[in-house]
Amino acid sequence: MTPLDRAPLAADPTAGCDREPIHVPGSIQPHGHLLAFAGDHLVLTHASAGAGAVLSTEVAAAFGRPIGQVLAGAPVEAMRDGLHCLPETGPMQLGRFRAASGTTFQAIGHRSPCGHTLLEFEAEAEKDGLEARATLEALYPGVRDAFARLGRATSIEVLGSTAAAAVRRITGFDRVLVYRFEENWDGTVVAEDSNGRLPAYLGLRFPASDIPAQARRLYEANPQRLIADADYAPVPILPARPGDASLDLTFAGLRSVSPVHLEYMRNMGTPASMSVSILRADGRLWGLVSCHHAAPRRVPFAARNACDLVAQMFAVRVAAREEMAYAEARTQLKGLEGRLLARMAAVPGRLEDGLLTVPADLLDLTGAAGAAVLTEGGCVLAGATPAEDEVRRIASWLAERRTEEVFQTNSLSELLPGAEGFADIASGLLAVPVSRLHPSFVLWFRPEVVRTVTWGGDPRKPAEPSPDRLHPRRSFAAWAETVRLRSAPWSAAEVEAARDLRNAIVSVVLRGAEERAELTDRLERVNKELAAFSYSVSHDLRAPFRHIVGFAELLRESEGSRLSERGQRYVATITEAAETAGRLVDALLNFSQMGRTALAPVEFDPMALVIEVRRALQPEQAGRHVEWRIGPMPVVWADPIMLRQVFQNLLSNAVKYTRGRDPAVIEVGCEALDGEFVFSVRDNGAGFDMAYAHKLFGVFQRLHRAEEFEGVGIGLANVQRIVERHGGRIWAEGRLGEGATFHFTLPRHDAPGPEAF
Question: I want to staple 48 with a disulfide (CB 3.0 to 4.6 A). Which of 34, 245, 476, 523 is the partner?
């Protein structure tokens, strides 16, 4: 069920849908046949009513016999062997099966959750040549192009548009939507690609009841769902013995759907639909790629798999972007946390004085317009807040709720009677308890933000109940709603900042060990963020790339002699692209681990590092005239291993980007200023346009084409992280075609940086 295909079924929409056994419908769609086998000998136990087209006898006579005796066509042995080695993760294509009648099918096998081995035969459709294009050779360029485009996308909306366009190119559907679930399971169409044959839904919102919990669970188990023709007549599945349990068709591509669902599609004017799940790293739904067509349409299994891969790539990019945005936000808030805790430590026993010495810091920590610190000693307000008596009433209400760590809402009036009276000031509330002995809280407030939400139909009337049957929604006209009494939502980074502040406050008040608690909490949080980020990248990106390389090598070994020269070149290109992507992942993991490694500063002369790096770069200078100008260096207090990485990246870039210069001139120097040393690495190479200087230190940011200069675009990001961890800063100057200069600073020994020293 897609958000736009599935209607709520009753006045309480989820009540009917949640109980509907959609994974055991007892029938399939008619554009194929289904057989179910049991045991190691693959004895036939179930068959769709029309399966005689692929059997050697009538369906009834085939029951109880092994697969080798019931299939009529070729290659039977390959089908049997394929079913014996099915993966546990889902369906697998077993090749083409030519029935005795001459009809050709795509054979697909999987293991059902009920213990049966299922074999599906999807009839090949040749109307528009989509079947002929559904091969590895034909699909790979589109998938690779999608991967490249997704890598360049700068926002969730651009990522979604790119994914939608890629899926539409692969499948030929009239309209492809990217649908994102909100926290309450409402859904919003964030991207759309269409040829104009169907109405646009971009920006529309749909109620959570459109996709009930049971349907969402099925989407998490099986990421693909195709309905080729909404006017189809379901084909029943026949059991060997009457009364046998229905088959679990969770992973079946031919699985039939509810008649109400089909009526909904007809009301919508979309005879064909396909959905592909967008899953987070932990398997939970982020959203869906929802496809629709103005006429019946089949999509081959290989093309559906290609769309699934695009959805996975989209999900990984979204996860990486969300993790990076979260990490950047947390980094920005860390300075505020540190200042607040330092002031608290400087004013022992007076929590409110320490937190509100500079009120703007407490407000900026969570992006609030007002804040209150309520303790046993009194109530202190800052910014735009309700009156003190209302603040105390809120605190008493929170105490009754026994809030453990963090309470948050962007609609306080829905929870607290009377809160609508000050919604213009405090529609949003973020609160943390700071004492286990007294009702003490730090509270942040946000004002009401009036906004308009456009729904795909009136969400107050999601269904039309009838005494004798359930009806799907019939109208899809946009319906605008003005939303009041709600603030902007609190971000995960802001909530985490409040939680961390609360933990530190409790530590100061109850244990008197603020510094130790702060450092411990900080290390645990950084490790958690890096572990989650590393897991997301390694789990969701590295495995698919290994599979691509592995299967490409298997294809080369098993089919190499039969591949044309062009085919062999394609396979080699696949392998090379996947290996390159793997290197990108490794570089990203190295970047994430950079913040986890503890600094080990010592006093040393960096000149030795520069000479060592210069010597290591000699192979890259072979056959070139490189003129090195290395000035004197002061003794510094830093981590020599990390500082070597700084010089390695900067000098390697200088050697790389001076390629073609004769002579290439590379200068390394240092200037001593008050409180810091300023190092510089200058070259006369390709340079860059200063208009793009802000991109230099971003992850995977490149100012030159990969064809001109090799690299993965993460070295300077590593350099920036190392320099900043030492308490320094880094910047660059350049002119296109005239060279570049990179400057970075290190604190002098008598003025150490905040983290390292």
Answer: 34
Q: What are the phi and psi torsion angles at 479 (to 5°)?
A: -130, 120
The angle, 0 to 180 degrees and rounded to 10, between the axes of the packed helices 136-152 and 156-171 is 170
pTM over 0.85: no
> Which conformational region is residue 82 in: left (phi greater than 0), alpha (psi within -120 to 50 degrees), or beta?
alpha
Task: Specify whether the CB–CB gap between 301 and 253 falls below 8 A.
Answer: yes
According to the model, what pLDDT value does residue 468 have?
45
For 146-293, list the strands marked E by DSSP: 175-181, 187-194, 205-206, 224-227, 235-239, 272-279, 285-293
Class of the domain covering 602-747: alpha beta
Q: Checking phi first, is residue 365 left (phi over 0); if not, alpha (psi -120 to 50) or beta? A: alpha
Task: Tell me the pairing of strands 187-194 and 175-181.
Answer: antiparallel
The answer on pLDDT for 595 being more than 90 is no
Architecture per CATH, domain 1-22+126-231+255-317+452-483, reads as 2-Layer Sandwich (3.30)
Average pLDDT on 413-428 reads: 90
Q: Rounded CA gap, 588 and 201, in Å? A: 36
Common-topology check for domains 1-22+126-231+255-317+452-483 and 32-124:
yes
Contacts of 460 (CB under 8 A, 6+ apart): none
Residue type, 623: G
Rounded distance between C-alpha atoms, residue 365 and residue 329, angstroms: 10
Domain ranges of the chain: 1-22+126-231+255-317+452-483, 32-124, 526-594, 602-747
- Give 537-585 pLDDT, tens digit per residue: 655 666 677 777 777 778 778 877 777 888 877 778 787 776 666 656 6
- Answer for the pair 247, 116: CB distance below 8 angstroms, yes or no: yes
What tokens were used for 273? 């639909």
DSSP of 284-300, one letter per residue?
-EEEEEEEEESS-----
Per-residue DSSP letter, 605: -
> What are the tens digits of pLDDT across the range 105-121?
999 999 998 889 999 99
Nearest to 295 by CA among 199, 221, 364, 228: 228
Give the number of C-alpha atoms closer than 13 A to the C-alpha of residue 527, restricted to the C-beta side: 8
